[in-house]
Amino acid sequence: MIVVVCPGQGSQTPGFLSPWLAEPAFAERLSALSAAAGLDLAKHGTESDADTIRDTAVAQPLIVAAGLLALEALTADGRASRLGGIAGHSVGEITAAAGTGVLSDADAMRFVAERGRAMADAAAQAATGMSAVIGADEDTLLARLAELGLEPANFNGGGQIVVAGAVEALDALKAEPPAGARVIPLQVAGAFHTRYMAPAVDRLAEVATTLSPADPTLRLWTNHDGRIVTSGAEFVDLLVGQVSSPVRWDRCMAAFADAGVTGIIEVAPAGALVGLAKRALKGVPAVAVKTPDDLPAAFELIDAAAA
């Protein structure tokens, strides 16, 4: 069973869309996605520097658009029927929603554009950030976070938990980490997936009322708790609430294992989720589709699973 995974914010790098846009069909497709988002995604994916594409309002639509380009190529020629399911990490859940038919591509881009703006606005209200903690005992770490007023934002599996909150508290955690742990500050604009994002939830709830979700055509897992969601309307509700609640990618990967996953394919801008899978799903083949040159390896994995 092949599971497709869609990355979240932080996976983008300057110029990463250039290999895709060298092909006219992908360039034309991106033009339509850009119009829906109200951003020049071709420029941001080929010319903009790291600081520009780190901006949440730019990064999120850019990542979802890239994932949709890769998904379209991946699922052509009837391959969608040979996939076992799909899931996204954080904003990648919107890519997954479009990939499984819960949202149209246009609605997905409209939703993610507002998500990016709303989260950027919420982040601007306080000096907050995020740090990756690697190698900590989970219970010990959670107790330390409670002392500092920090929150777990991403349970990524493989011994990695991303935490978020006030910058001073993150500095205190780095100065005195739990025994055996490393604390790595992340270059993000705010404390995503925490209480600091409550204003963004309210805005996205309004946008959600304008959507017309359909039930998923593929098995679809949620970051909320790793379970399979069969209702499109419920998945949209979860997308809204997920902005201020932790990403349980560890539970998603556990659910993949329980379902009998035999291969992982990460769509563009790929790399991070394949890395997590190698640690948490040892021995499961994985392909990161970073450029169109990676598609043949992904096709081979899909075809081998169907044989």
From TrEMBL:
All copies of domain Malonyl-CoA:ACP transacylase (MAT), residue ranges: 5-294
Catalytic activity line of the entry: holo-[ACP] + malonyl-CoA = malonyl-[ACP] + CoA
UniProt cross-references to InterPro entries, sorted A to Z: Ac_transferase_dom_sf (IPR001227), Acyl_transferase_dom (IPR014043), Acyl_Trfase/lysoPLipase (IPR016035), Mal-CoA-ACP_Trans/PKS_FabD (IPR050858), Malonyl_transacylase_ACP-bd (IPR016036)
GO CC, alphabetical: cytosol
Keyword vocabulary terms for this entry: Acyltransferase, Transferase
Enzyme Commission number(s) of this protein: 2.3.1.39
One GO term (biological process): fatty acid biosynthetic process
Xref: Pfam families: Acyl_transf_1
GO molecular function per UniProt: [acyl-carrier-protein] S-malonyltransferase activity
Keyword Acyltransferase carried by entry: yes
SUPFAM superfamilies named among the record's database cross-references: FabD/lysophospholipase-like (SSF52151), Probable ACP-binding domain of malonyl-CoA ACP transacylase (SSF55048)
EC class of the enzyme, as a word: transferase
Keyword Transferase on entry: yes
Protein name: [acyl-carrier-protein] S-malonyltransferase
